[in-house]
Amino acid sequence: MSSQPRLVVSAPSSGHGKTAIAVGLLAAAAGRGVPAAGFKVGPDHTDAAYLGLAAGRPGRNLDPRLVGSQRIAPLFAHGAAGSHFAVVEGAMGLFDSLTGQPEIDGTAAVAAALRAPVLLVVDVAAMGHSLAALVHGFRMFDEMVHLGGVILNRVASPRHEEMLRTALDDIGMPVLGALRRGDLPAVLPARAQGPVPVAHRTVEAVRAVRRLGEAVGSALDLDRIMALANTAPALPSPAWSPADGLDPAEIPVQRPVIALAGGPGAPYTYVETAELLTAAGADVVVVDPLRDEALPPGTRALMIGAGLPEGYAEELSANRRLCAAVAQLAHEGAPIVAEGIGLPWLTRDFDGRPMCGVLDATATTGTQTVAGYREATAPSTSPLAPAGARITGYKQHRAIVAPRAGQIPAWTWSGGNPEGFVWRQVHASQLGLHWAGAPEIARRLVAAALPGHPQQPPAAQAPTVPITPPAPSPLPAQQQSPPPTGDPNEATLSLSAVDLQNQ
């Protein structure tokens, strides 16, 4: 059993300031010397990176769609081990969901799975006594969710604050802090930069986190907030471990070097990816595709996660030496797993800029963001998955790759055309996966990176045990939005695209 003090920071909807307050809470706690841990509900790499920077340890994602609801509490216990204060930042509103199924993957569902009290952040700039009705509704809506307190954001004046506190006192709801208009500075780097400022530990990112910690520390009652976090009961499930189910006999004596795209401050994928690869027997070394001109010495495989934004295409193209090294690695038959912008990076060119030239394809930036979960099936065996394996992934991109798929696609899914490329030991797609939902992926990649591993064409390889899909069944067709005009082969969940841009 694990008993880390914890709470969930949520809001009635996006735009109330929960990201800044969650980051500020962690920074303020760390500033007091309290060991802290930060988590983000959903697939968002950016918020998780800033939560990690504030806490002083890697920020992690809790996404029931990607890893399965049964793994949420164990993953939390693993990531929060040794902390005395854990903050889980929600996605969208407390009872919202990227898929329209909040009972499965919404913030409230995660809060219930973690048995964590909820701290509700409300932008009260245009609110009066109606705030009490709103908060009362949120408190009563789901008996599995404990609303433990409210943070008032963008209070207009002392009189306004007194009125709001009186209204909430009438319904017995504690106010654990109030920020005036302008108290919460808009200092976080632009979301278009993704986790890159954290990965590079830029002055801008570090200063932003420090300023949010100062603002939150002076306006919120940290002692009462930490006391609320301490009311969370012990979780009965054991902590997740990257070595779960791993036979020690499977760990190779000779540990292959696997390069993982990222920076010194954060990887461009979920933190558990590196942990799983290490447990499976690899020496994981970070390579920065924006700065490093060579792969780490002895690299036997490369993994490029979906956290690197497409806005860095020019920097990727300009790094010609690394592009040549990646192309050489692919042609030598070493395994490469590419997600997100990793696929356009492996093509001949992206918006006319030369890329690695591994795949016979080109990429252009479309006019509309494609975002949503996909229930994907592997049509053939590759270093990532055996033929027939099913897994849930998340994609968010504007790049359109032509052709959309190679002779051997990376994935197929219901209601859409095949996507991505499997060529020799390369598996490239715009779909991002959370490997904690399918730990077999890491073991397969390590095995493929070992010297003497057969470099057969995928079609000639024999299927092995399929990856068990961790997430619920595919969404019904009526829950999918119509295809965007920019790419007739894609479906887009417009709600998720808007939410990730606005948080």
Salient structural properties:
503 residues; 17 helices; seven-stranded parallel β-sheet; disordered C terminus; alpha/beta
Please provide a written account of the structure.
With 503 residues, the chain is α/β, with parallel strands linked by helices. 31% of the residues lie in helices and 21% in strands. It has 17 helices and 19 strands. It has helices spanning 18-31, 45-55, 64-67, 72-80, 102-105, 107-114, 130-141, 158-170, 196-199, 203-219, 222-229, 271-279, 313-318, 320-331, 342-346, 440-449, 494-502, and strands at 6-10, 36-41, 60-62, 85-89, 118-123, 147-155, 175-180, 257-261, 283-287, 299-304, 336-338, 349-350, 353-354, 362-377, 390-402, 411-413, 416-419, 421-423, 426-428. A 7-stranded parallel β-sheet has the order 3-2-4-1-5-6-7, sandwiched between helices. Helix 12 (271-279) links the parallel strand 8 (257-261) and strand 9. Mean pLDDT is 90; it is low at 456-503.
The shape is: elongated
- Structural class of the helix and strand makeup? alpha/beta
Radius of gyration: 23 Å
Instruction: Please count the helical segments.
Output: 17
How many β-strand runs? 19
Order of strands in the sheet with most strands: 3-2-4-1-5-6-7
Strand content: 15-25%
Low-confidence stretches: 456-503
Q: Could you tell me the mean pLDDT?
A: 90
Largest sheet: 7 strands, parallel
Q: Please give the alpha-carbon distance between the first and last residues.
A: 33 Å
Helix content: 25-40%
